[in-house]
Design a protein that fits this description.
Distance between the termini: 25 Å
Largest sheet: 5 strands, parallel
Oligomer: single chain
Helix content: 40-55%
Bound molecules: S-adenosylmethionine
Length: 321
């Protein structure tokens, strides 16, 4: 256990150390000059949600797709093409320009290289669907954060009007369109980090791996590319496996990757000498995490390994979100 688990901790440590250094430098400056600290950090925290929402809204209104196809365009043209008011569109475009997502010139607005790489809905490294998942699911949940903290429960009923017992069936997989959006979101988010994850450790000693809840295989294909002697099985729900073919890349590494449908809480896990859990454990309450890890532990033979990686979650009981 614990190979990939170290990654978020290291990142967390790095971020905490960086902010501690900045904070102690600033504190030293205020103390030396006998002045009150400026409220900059607090104001940034207060305004942070506006930045996210501007990005979500521009993605939702397909501003980056439009400018990818036809940019540069004027405010009036963009407003007409996305079916929005000229005044409101102007504010949104200027916000995106201020955030480094759009360039504003006399010829109009166009995507910056950052937006071109990550925000077009059909880009190779697209995070567009990942943004939309945050707009449609995370945003409503976080609006009820105070209830989640008070009650210690997932706020599915208040946020989405669902029971919150099976988030996948109730929300992400309730129809094929939503399912593909979720799969695209996972694919994009995992693909941008897959190479770093695959090469963070030397896995050349393993010959077989099973990526539990491995979705489209974004990490599996990268592992296969990096380790030609490794066979990777993706084990995920049947409705995911049936559409995983939509995400199959070209290249010789594809022969090393196979897909097995199943439920990791109920069905027999495929045999492997390395088990991978990428962005899985944060989805479940402690009793389910315990159940899953116990099942993996029973499947492991001596000398085999289970690894967990989380690309962003470091909180202690994220299941309430
Ligand atoms: C947050 S996604 C992570 C996907 C992928 N591991 C990644 O890093 O991009 C969680 C995945 O777990 C799968 N999953 C959820 N419940 C499952 C279950 N009971 N058995 C197998 N897979 C499951 C979902 O279908 C989804 O693909």
């Amino acid at each position: 256990m614990g190979l990939f688990r170290a990654i978020p901790k290291l990142l967390h440590k790095h971020v905490v150390m960086a902010s501690e250094t900045r904070e102690s430098r600033e504190r030293h400056r205020w103390q030396t000059h006998g002045a009150e600290p400026p409220p900059t950090a607090i104001v940034e925290l207060i305004d942070g949600f506006k930045v996210s929402k501007a990005l979500f809204t521009a993605c939702k209104m397909k501003v980056f797709d439009l400018l990818g196809d036809e940019g540069p365009l004027s405010t009036a043209d963009i407003a007409r093409k996305i079916g929005a008011s000229e005044g409101g569109t102007g504010y949104l475009l200027d916000a995106c320009a201020g955030l480094g997502l759009l360039d504003k010139t006399e010829g109009g607005y166009s995507n910056t290289p950052l937006a071109t790489l990550y925000l077009l809905s059909d880009g190779e490294y697209s995070l567009h669907s990942f943004v939309m998942i945050h707009e449609e699911f995370s945003w409503p949940f976080f609006s009820y954060l105070d209830f989640a903290v008070r009650e210690g429960t997932i706020q599915a009923q208040r946020a989405l009007g669902t029971a919150g017992e099976d988030h996948y069936q109730e929300s992400f997989y309730k129809n094929r369109e939503k399912k593909l959006q979720f799969m695209r979101a996972m694919h994009g988010h995992t693909k941008v980090a897959a190479r770093q994850v695959a090469t963070a450790f030397d896995l050349s000693g393993f010959t077989s791996a099973c990526d539990l809840g491995g979705s489209t295989g974004a990490l599996a294909y990268e592992l296969a590319r990096q380790y030609p002697g490794l066979k990777v099985t993706i084990f995920d729900l049947p409705e995911v496996i049936e559409d995983a073919v939509c995400f199959k890349p070209h290249g010789p590494q594809t022969v090393q990757v196979s897909f097995v449908p199943g439920d990791f809480f109920r069905d027999t896990l495929p045999e492997a000498d390395l088990y991978i859990l990428s962005k899985i454990l944060h989805n479940w309450p402690d009793d389910k995490v315990h159940q899953l890890l116990s099942r993996i532990s029973r499947s492991c033979k001596p000398g085999e390994t289970a690894s967990s990686t989380s690309f962003s979650d470091t909180h202690e009981d994220p299941s309430i979100f």
